[in-house]
Design goal:
This is Light organ matrix metalloproteinase 1. Its cofactor is Ca(2+); Zn(2+). Keywords: Calcium, Hydrolase, Metal-binding, Metalloprotease, Protease, Signal, Zinc. GO terms for molecular function: metalloendopeptidase activity; zinc ion binding. Belongs to the peptidase M10A family. There is one protein chain. This protein is of the alpha/beta class. The chain folds into two domains: 85 residues, no CATH class; 148 residues, Collagenase (Catalytic Domain) (3-Layer(aba) Sandwich), CATH 3.40.390.10. The protein contains six helices and seven strands. A five-stranded mixed sheet has the order 2-1-3-5-4, with helices on one face. Strand 1, helix 4 and strand 2 form a beta-alpha-beta unit. Helix 4 crosses helix 5. The protein starts with 40 loop residues before the first helix and ends with a helix. Bound molecules: 2-acetamido-2-deoxy-beta-D-glucopyranose. 2-acetamido-2-deoxy-beta-D-glucopyranose (NAG) binds next to loops. 2-acetamido-2-deoxy-beta-D-glucopyranose binds next to loops.
Length: 265
């Protein structure tokens, strides 16, 4: 899971020309990143696993920061320059999953050892009706059923393996606060013996949609997060639902299918 950063809610201005770090509202997708959203490159590199345990006081700070930027560029399929250029900034400003891209120390093959995965939905978003919210979640989970051979079952009482909630800011029993509109859209917990394992939290400061309307595709985000709940980490390939950045994609990619089959074979 994510390393805890209390500064999650206080992104600060960092470089010399903050204006160029803003996303100009334009395309439908960019509209969801508010223009007040500020990028802190170092914070981003730490938060998503590219630069652990390094700060400005570290002797090899400059070198390790350059390495971290290279790792980010490599992971994201950008030109590897080690510089924070426009391409890097633009991608860092894209709405994304709150989970790390590079995870150190997580058991490689963490998975569920049951064939039926129970889930519950205890809070809803105001953006879509409750029945559409249930439909969107079910649609996403069903897509994983074929390649994983798992079955998902919604339960309304008792403790589900996957507890799905819409939350804002700092939320009950979770150390990872949401960050308002834009930025982090959701996070999820990998399979383990931990009580929170499998759970998914959606940032309700985002605007969600199902099928039509404006906003972010709930099916797409639920599909991505449930991949984490089942044990998949981020993928750096384009066209895969497990890529860390929001694309609106509502299908699994070829590598998603390969990876989930390998995990649940
Ligand atoms: C599944 O089984 C493996 C091997 O016994 C174990 O290490 C792992 O913790 C189990 N997974 C869960 C989520 O309980």
């Amino acid at each position: 899971m994510l390393t805890l950063f209390v500064v999650l809610l206080t992104w600060s201005v960092v470089a010399a020309n903050p204006a160029s770090q803003y996303v100009t509202p334009g395309s439908a997708e960019q509209e969801i990143t508010p223009s007040s959203y500020e990028l802190n490159v170092d914070e981003y590199l730490r938060k998503y696993g590219y630069m652990n345990d390094v700060n400005e006081r570290s002797v090899d700070y400059a070198e390790r920061r350059t390495d971290a930027i290279k790792l980010f560029q490599e992971f994201a399929g950008l030109e590897v320059t080690g510089e924070v250029n426009e391409e890097v900034r633009e991608l860092m400003l894209k709405p994304r999953c709150g989970m790390k891209d590079i995870v150190v120390g997580r058991p490689e093959n963490a998975r569920w050892n049951v064939s039926e995965i129970t889930y519950s939905l205890s809070t809803y978003t105001k953006d879509i009706s409750e029945s559409d919210t249930r439909a969107a979640i079910a649609e996403a989970l069903t897509l994983w059923e074929g390649p994983s051979n798992l079955k998902f079952k919604k339960i309304d009482s008792g403790t589900a393996i996957m507890e799905l909630r819409f939350v804002t800011g700092k939320h009950k029993r979770c150390p990872y606060a949401m960050d308002g509109s834009g930025g982090v859209l959701a996070h999820a917990f990998f399979p383990s013996k931990h009580l929170a394992a499998g759970d998914i939290h959606f940032d309700d400061d985002e605007t969600y949609k199902y099928k039509n309307g404006r906003g972010l595709s709930l099916v797409s985000i639920a599909l991505h997060e449930s991949g984490h709940s089942l044990g998949l980490g981020h993928d750096n390939k384009k066209g895969e639902i497990m890529a860390g950045w929001y694309s609106g994609q509502t299908t699994l990619g070829p590598n998603d299918i390969k990876r989930i089959k390998a995990l649940y074979k």
